[in-house]
Specification:
Mean pLDDT: 75
Number of helices: 17
Helix content: 55-70%
Number of strands: 6
Order of helices and strands: HHHHHEEEHEHEEHHHHHHHHHH
CATH class of the largest domain: Mainly Alpha
Low-confidence stretches: 1-21
Number of domains: 3
Radius of gyration: 43 Å
CATH superfamily of the largest domain: Hypothetical protein af1432
Structural class: alpha+beta
């Protein structure tokens, strides 16, 4: 091989072998010198004593002393030589480790050192630096994982909806990895499109992102099919061409699929770095672990939603069955729900409160399932005992839905929809601010529907008459809600 040519991926060695640099020979010479010096000194003293007779030392005693000195030198030399052999082995092992760790420039620098001890010291120093770097990296990963899992646990305990929870996960993992932007994409039921569930690090709104067609042969499709995380030093062309990915097309980029029981649900993407470094393998693995846990949360959320829907529909069917018993009140639950929604929208309540009102209104008379039919369907005025029974229906309704966690947020309206601001209502006699706004809305809608429905003991009222009757109730009902409701009814009639 020509001297100008080198083997591919070869690295220079650090100064050669210790044996080759004669460190053992150096120590051998040193110990020989150490053995000669005391021998010479002892002989000098012997000559002096022999000549002047000042030291009482026999020849035999001197010979024994000399023998002990020589034996000591031999044993010391053998021991130190064994230590040196071990030192050589450690140095060689460190050298091999360094050749796989250090850059060629650093190795060449070390190769110029003449002192073997200096080389060994530098070798240990370099290894310790690398170990410290690995420890710091592992500690960072541990802290990141701890923060992620802590926030996930916090999110689970305080989660109002799955989107809030997923947003919390995405924010934490993106910051933990030092990423600039992050996105969580969910695979739709058709298994052909990805929709953006949440975004972090960019003002782009998730709901404005168009679904992404996951075509066979594309990088996105390969990620979903492989079910393995992928790291992109360079952004693939087929990704940058997707406009929905414009905010994520920042190198480097990690894509980790959301997999649950061999079923791919979507992917988490972290793009860009706040520091000019590539993502490490442990960071890719960390994202993969978080993606796996996120997939479990998404799947459980879907199952819970299906279960909650089943619970609600079942209990709602029971409430409707009670509602259908009385021809005079038939349809009452649906009408009260519509009135509540009308008031809530007029007041500018958010979508979550509106949904709570709608669901609670459909169940507010559920407790009547525990009231005897002769009381429910009595055409005349109820006597005192019958009123006692009738007033128990809010408590009965609450007792039915309270054990169901997904419906427990409806308990307030179901239990208190007959409470009055002046404390004359039932079952708890609440007053003023103790009655929530959702309960106040339901109470007004409930009474209004009762006034505008036909009863065996009176005719139904017109909307205007009913609103006027509500206004007469003074401090019992929320007058602002009554006026808001009246305006909404007026606007509805004009349409």
């Amino acid at each position: 091989m020509s001297p100008a040519l080198k083997a591919p991926h070869s690295k220079p060695r650090i100064g050669g072998s210790i044996q080759d640099t004669s460190i053992v020979r150096k120590f051998t010479i040193l110990f020989l010198l150490m053995s000669v010096i005391p021998t010479v000194v002892l002989y000098y003293f012997y000559v002096q004593i022999k000549e002047y007779g000042q030291l009482q030392l026999t020849t035999n005693e001197f010979n024994v002393t000399l023998i002990f000195i020589v034996l000591g030198v031999i044993v010391g030399y053998a021991s130190m030589r064994e230590v040196l052999k071990q030192l050589v082995q450690v140095t060689e092992a460190n050298r091999r480790a360094l050749e796989s760790i250090l850059s060629p420039e650093k190795i060449r620098k070390l190769s110029q050192e003449e002192n073997e001890i200096a080389v060994l010291a530098q070798s240990f120093s370099a290894i310790m630096e690398r170990l410290e770097e690995n420890v710091r990296s592992l500690e960072l990963a541990r802290k990141t994982l701890h923060a992620v899992m802590g926030k996930i646990g916090q999110g689970i305990s305080n989660m109002q909806n799955i989107d809030t929870f997923l947003g919390l996960i995405l924010e934490t993992i993106t910051d933990g990895l030092g990423g600039k932007v992050g996105a969580l994409l969910v695979l739709e039921e058709d298994r052909k499109t990805l929709t953006t569930r949440c975004i972090y690090g960019t003002p782009v709104e998730p709901h404005r992102q168009k679904p992404i067609d996951v075509r066979a042969g594309t990088t996105l499709c390969s990620i979903l099919e492989s079910r393995r995380p992928l790291l992109f030093p360079e952004i693939p062309v087929d990704i940058t061409e997707i406009k929905s990915f414009a905010y994520l097309a920042i190198k480097p980029m990690i894509c980790a699929p959301l997999v649950m029981k061999e079923k791919t649900l979507g992917m988490i993407i972290v793009g860009g770095r706040k520091v000019p470094e590539m993502f490490e393998d442990d960071e890719v693995n960390l994202l993969a672990n978080v993606a796996a846990q996120t997939a479990v949360s998404i799947e459980n959320s879907r199952l819970n939603q299906d279960m909650e829907k089943t619970y609600f529909e079942t209990i709602s069917a029971l409430a409707l069955a009670v509602d259908a018993k009385d021809r005079y009140s038939r349809g009452h639950l649906d009408r009260v729900a519509d009135h509540c929604v009308m008031i809530a929208r007029k007041l500018g309540l958010d979508a979550q409160d509106i949904q709570t009102l709608r669901d609670a209104a459909r169940l507010h008379d559920l407790g009547k399932i525990g009231i005897p039919d002769e009381v429910l369907q009595k055409k005349g005025t109820l006597n005192e005992q019958e009123w006692i029974l009738m007033r128990k229906h809010p408590e009965i309704g609450e007792s039915i839905i309270k054990p169901i966690r997904s419906l427990s947020h409806l308990c307030d309206v179901v239990r208190h929809h007959h409470e009055k601001l002046d404390g004359t209502g039932y079952p708890d006699g609440l007053k003023g601010d103790a009655i929530s706004s959702l309960v106040r809305i339901t109470t007004v809608a409930d009474i209004y529907d009762a006034l505008t429905s036909e009863r065996p003991y009176r005719d139904r009222m017109s909307p205007a008459q009913a609103c006027e009757e509500l206004r007469k109730m003074g401090g019992k009902l929320d007058q602002d809600i009554i006026e808001t409701f009246a305006e909404a009814l007026f606007e509805q009639r004009k349409m």
